[in-house]
User: Which sequence fits this backbone?
């Protein structure tokens, strides 16, 4: 079997529309009519909306209201063709982005010195922070082989950024509560360390790392501390205001020097925006690029991207000012009501337990007595789409507004109980879901994983 066939078996059919619409592998001699194009696009959109509108999908669609998206699309359309580099022609972009950053900074308890930038997503926000610490370490400490110390639960975007930037991420095992081990991270500090990195909350388990203690260590050793709030940064502040136990993670802690926070998740903007905020402009300046001797003129860019669509920033600004604190609190309350019901239901299923001490909007489930991947198999058969995890084996449910629909939480608890009974005596030997994650800790599993993922990525760019 070829690698391509392997990837299809693992990930399913990546090209389900080829048989219906055919394959376009070169620019058509005569263009399709707008009517035909819209027919194809609307069909694909409607088919794919069916998957998440049920409320059975973990994460993915963070608002999920068609009226909300229609409003943002209308705002986007007014600026979709605008290049944000051309600020003299389109000063609206300056207004939108400056106010987005200011609102996020205030939400994260920044002060008059807090500053930042709008990016294309969490990965770019993290990349920009890594770049800043590399440049800061070189400029202020003469570090030429920069290292960042982080818990093993840190998002892969940090390792991806380090790969691009010639840096090293020192990953440290987490505690039994799946939180960053502060003393273990302290022990990994070397003369090459430029920063700590931690999560609020972590993608696998949704936990907030002990940022308070990490802040103290970072100050003691005069290194940076980046908090990855790409997943939780835009909902944890509102959950805290509702009275839930949320450990401090933001600029209230003096050692926190930067935070990445995605506006396109729980900020409810359109996909393709995030923010990176810094404690002060001295740090942010390291992020900027400028060339003053180019024949095309002086070129300056604040982030990795050059040309950017003004539509995304406009839509993000519109999402934030239309939601307001009242809207964000209402959304957080609805999500936490569903989370409370699900956590209470899991507590009545003795074979399962939730990972982490302070679960909020993300519930990560594992078991010591049954294989949780068989549990996930049964849920998948019922239409649920969970996110598989490993170390230990399990899966998580990232709750969004879709799970606040009537009956969704109750249905999940009911199906989860049935799934446990299924997992006690499964009709086949190897789980269908989570297989690669479950094999990830063995040499054979890593080899299969690498073969599968590389073929999968290649298949994105192959027409068939």
Assistant:
């Amino acid at each position: 079997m070829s690698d391509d066939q392997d990837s299809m078996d693992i990930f399913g059919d990546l090209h389900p529309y080829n048989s219906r619409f055919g394959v376009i592998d070169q620019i058509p001699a005569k263009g399709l009519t707008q009517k035909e194009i819209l027919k194809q696009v609307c069909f694909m959109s409607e088919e794919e909306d069916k998957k998440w509108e049920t409320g059975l999908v973990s994460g993915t669609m963070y608002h999920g209201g068609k009226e909300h998206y229609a409003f943002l699309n209308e705002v986007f359309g007014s600026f979709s063709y605008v290049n944000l580099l051309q600020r003299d022609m389109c000063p609206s972009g300056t207004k939108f982005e400056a106010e987005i950053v200011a609102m996020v900074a205030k939400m994260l308890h920044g002060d008059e010195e807090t500053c930042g930038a709008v990016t294309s997503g969490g990965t770019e926000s993290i990349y920009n922070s890594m770049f800043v610490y590399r440049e800061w370490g070189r400029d202020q400490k003469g570090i030429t082989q920069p290292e960042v110390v982080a818990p093993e639960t840190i998002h892969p975007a940090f390792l991806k950024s380090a790969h691009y930037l010639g840096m090293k991420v020192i990953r440290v095992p987490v505690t039994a509560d799946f939180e960053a081990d502060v003393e273990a991270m302290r022990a990994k500090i070397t003369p090459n360390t430029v920063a700590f990195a931690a999560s609020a909350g972590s993608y696998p388990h949704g936990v907030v790392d002990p940022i308070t203690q990490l802040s103290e260590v970072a100050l003691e050793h005069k290194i940076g501390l980046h908090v990855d709030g790409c997943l939780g940064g835009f909902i944890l502040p509102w959950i805290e205001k509702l009275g839930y136990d949320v450990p401090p993670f933001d600029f209230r802690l003096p050692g926190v020097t930067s935070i990445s926070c995605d506006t396109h998740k729980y900020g409810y903007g359109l996909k393709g925006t995030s923010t990176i905020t810094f404690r002060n402009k001295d740090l942010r300046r390291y992020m900027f690029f400028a060339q003053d001797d180019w024949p095309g003129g002086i070129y300056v860019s604040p982030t990795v991207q050059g040309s950017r669509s003004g539509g995304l920033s406009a839509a993000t600004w519109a999402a934030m000012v239309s939601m307001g604190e009242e809207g964000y609190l209402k959304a957080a309350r609805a999500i936490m009501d569903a989370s409370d019901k699900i956590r209470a239901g899991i507590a009545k299923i003795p074979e399962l337990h939730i990972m982490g001490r302070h679960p909020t909007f993300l519930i990560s489930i594992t078991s010591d007595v049954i294989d949780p991947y068989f549990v996930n198999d049964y849920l998948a058969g019922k239409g649920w789409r969970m996110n598989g995890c490993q170390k230990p084996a399990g899966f998580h449910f990232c709750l969004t507004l879709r799970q606040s629909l009537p009956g969704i939480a109750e249905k999940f608890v009911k199906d989860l109980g049935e799934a446990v009974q299924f997992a006690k005596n499964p009709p086949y030997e190897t789980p269908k879901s989570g297989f690669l994650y479950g094999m990830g800790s063995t040499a054979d599993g890593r080899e299969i994983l690498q073969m599968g993922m590389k073929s999968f990525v290649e298949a994105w760019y192959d027409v068939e």
